[in-house]
Write a structure and sequence with these properties.
The protein contains eight helices and six strands, in the order αααβββαβααβαβα. It has helices spanning 13-32, 38-45, 53-68, 138-162, 176-182, 194-204, 243-252, 265-284, and strands at 84-92, 102-110, 118-130, 168-173, 220-224, 254-256. Strands 5-4-1-2-3-6 form a six-stranded mixed beta sheet, sandwiched between helices. The longest helix has 25 residues, at 138-162.
Length: 285
């Protein structure tokens, strides 16, 4: 790329082909071993139909970064004890092309937080993708990201169950209004978001669906966490408050979760009550 060319110049057809080839190659890498660069590829992919010089320079910069950090590895360690499937969920509101939003999701399997907050884990799945609907508020963007991450968590636990790994799920968000609204019985939401809230509440309030014959006694809890430990933030932006913590966590297979908020004790106890009732009913049957 000639240095004298302006960033706003459109690419020639051969350069567009080169850009698509670079994006495809990097997409394969980010889909397998490099979650940090997944957002950059997703973001740049949206501009291939109207690509400019700046987009080709940006993907070249990503490639140079990958080469400079090629020693980075995903490590997988043995974990003993009861396991929990955690999914971090985040959204970047109206920062993409045509005022679109970005959805990020990171799923890990690890231990429950120890007394000092440490969690030993292995990374399982991650996703950075454009939000599939037009949203007009941060709460709406976070809600859609949470429902997508909920599906990721449920699907991952289903696959783990095929390997005889049975575990509960936790969905972690840094949107306090979403956390409060899901566990509120009196709050009202926009009509367009009702199906999404219904899906979250049905999963995160197990007593709402425990009478179903498909209820297996396992629940997903929605936890609130501060932004500096919201790992999915790195799948919606280039640089975030949790970037350093996420990198350290991936290299050490552990991180410290000291600040988080779970549902009220009443919701947790109802889950235990319903689990006991279902077990008692099954034993009598």
């Amino acid at each position: 790329m000639e240095s004298k060319r302006s960033d706003s110049d459109p690419l020639t057809p051969p350069e567009v082909t080169n850009l698509r080839g670079c994006l495809g190659s990097v997409l394969y890498i980010t889909g397998n071993t490099r979650p940090f660069e997944a957002y950059a590829v997703s973001h740049l992919s949206a501009f291939t139909t109207e690509a400019k010089v700046t987009h080709l320079r940006q993907i070249n910069q990503v490639i140079r970064h990958l080469k400079a950090t090629k020693s980075f590895r995903l490590r997988y360690v043995k974990i003993d004890g009861p396991l929990v499937c955690f999914t971090f969920s985040d959204s970047n509101f109206k920062k993409e092309r045509d005022s679109g939003s970005q959805t990020g999701s990171v799923t890990i399997i690890g231990t429950a937080p120890m007394f000092d907050g440490w969690i030993l884990f292995n990374l399982l799945r991650w996703s950075s993708r454009r939000t599939r609907r037009v949203v007009h508020s941060t709460l709406a963007a976070e809600t859609l990201a949470a429902t997508f991450s909920l599906d990721m968590n449920e699907g991952t636990r289903g696959r783990l169950l095929e390997l005889s790994i049975d575990c509960d799920g936790v969905l972690l968000v840094d949107c306090r209004s979403l956390f409060d609204h899901v566990y509120s019985m009196t709050g009202k939401v926009d009509e367009v978001l009702v199906p999404d809230y219904f899906q979250l509440r049905e999963s995160c309030l197990p007593f709402r669906h425990a009478h179903s014959p498909d209820y297996d006694g396992h629940a997903i809890e929605l936890w609130w966490v501060p932004t500096h430990v919201q790992f999915a933030d790195n799948l919606t932006k280039i640089r975030t408050p949790s970037s350093d913590a996420f990198f350290q966590a991936l290299t050490q297979n552990q991180f410290q979760l000291l600040e988080f908020e779970r549902p009220r004790k009443a919701h947790q106890n109802l889950h235990c009550l319903w689990t006991a009732l279902v077990s008692a009913f099954d034993s009598r049957a």
